[in-house]
């Protein structure tokens, strides 16, 4: 490996270290506690080196938001792989979304603004499909959506998302407030009701 390739690899490794440290701090102390100084201390670098990779904390959080969307997209694709009907696919994708929200709570909070300012990244030129695009594509597969306008498809997407994100947000903010069985029933009933309305 040449010196140029080694430098590129080392830079990427350092960038990954910074992002990993940021996630570890957020998991331990919450997003509000995150600072460039804390990240530098955790990876035993000086703060100015962190700024060589990320202009400021906002830029770092945007990079993490992008990572979260990519991770969620991969999970949704994996869970819906091999399923045939749009009803099966949509349920599997929203179930993956639900699981992600609780397994990767810090990512979800950052991506969707639950108890933290939501980070918006410029999704022009992203090299993966966003979670909303994956859901949108499945909605278009429903027989009742054939020939429908983008506005109508958008309305269905937001109907699904409002129910799922709302239920997730309630559970994240008021942890343990709702019984698992109630969550499961509300989730399944809502997804099935919306899907049945567009068959």
From TrEMBL:
PROSITE patterns: HTH_TETR_2
Chain residues forming the annotated DNA-binding region: 35-54
Location of the HTH tetR-type domain: 12-72
Keyword tRNA-binding in annotation: no
Key words, A-Z: DNA-binding, Transcription, Transcription regulation
Domain of life the protein comes from: Bacteria
Hydrolase in keyword set: no
InterPro entries assigned to the protein according to its UniProt record, in alphabetical order: Homeodomain-like_sf (IPR009057), HTH-type_Tx_Regulator (IPR050624), HTH_TetR (IPR001647), MT1864/Rv1816-like_C (IPR025996), Tet_transcr_reg_TetR-rel_C_sf (IPR036271)
One Pfam family linked to the record: TetR_N
One MF annotation (Gene Ontology) recorded for this entry: DNA binding
The protein, known as: TetR/AcrR family transcriptional regulator
Species, as recorded: Rhizosphaericola mali
Lineage: Bacteria, Pseudomonadati, Bacteroidota, Chitinophagia, Chitinophagales
């Amino acid at each position: 490996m040449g010196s140029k390739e080694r430098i590129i690899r080392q830079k990427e490794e350092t960038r990954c270290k910074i992002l990993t440290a940021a996630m570890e701090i957020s998991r331990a102390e919450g997003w509000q506690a995150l600072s460039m100084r804390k990240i530098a201390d955790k990876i035993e670098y000086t703060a100015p080196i962190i700024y060589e990779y990320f202009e400021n904390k906002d830029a770092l959080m945007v990079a993490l938001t992008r990572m979260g969307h990519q991770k969620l997209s991969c999970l949704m694709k994996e869970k819906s792989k091999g399923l045939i009907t749009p009803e099966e696919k949509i349920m599997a994708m929203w179930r993956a979304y639900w699981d992600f929200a609780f397994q990767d709570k810090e990512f979800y909070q950052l991506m969707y603004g639950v108890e933290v300012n939501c980070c918006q990244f410029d999704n022009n030129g992203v090299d993966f499909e966003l979670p909303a695009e994956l859901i949108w594509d499945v909605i278009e597969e429903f027989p009742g959506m054939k020939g429908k306008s983008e506005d109508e498809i958008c309305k269905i997407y937001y109907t699904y998302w409002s129910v799922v994100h709302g239920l997730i947000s309630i559970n994240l903010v008021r942890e343990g407030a709702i019984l698992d069985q109630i969550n499961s029933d509300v989730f399944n009933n809502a997804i099935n009701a919306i899907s049945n309305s567009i068959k």
